[in-house]
Amino acid sequence: MPVKKVVEQKCANCDHSSCCQKLGSNQGGSSSAVYGLGFVGALIYFFPTMNTFNGVIMGIVKSLVWPGILVHQAFTLLGL
Fold this sequence. Notes:
Layout: H1 3-12, H2 30-46, H3 53-78
Helix pairs in contact: 2-3
């Protein structure tokens, strides 16, 4: 049986309370908490470089984008 038919059959009578997730709802869960802790940790790490207004802005920006930089460096290291 094709996958599309199986999905259509299972979702035909779904009330979105047990098996499916509602569309548009925030499903961040624990990953949001981990990212938030990482953001706070990065702010503390970059805090000594925040001597000027530009330093504060750069510290906040670096704290927001460090996961992307980490993944980019990991992919570069792995040759991907």
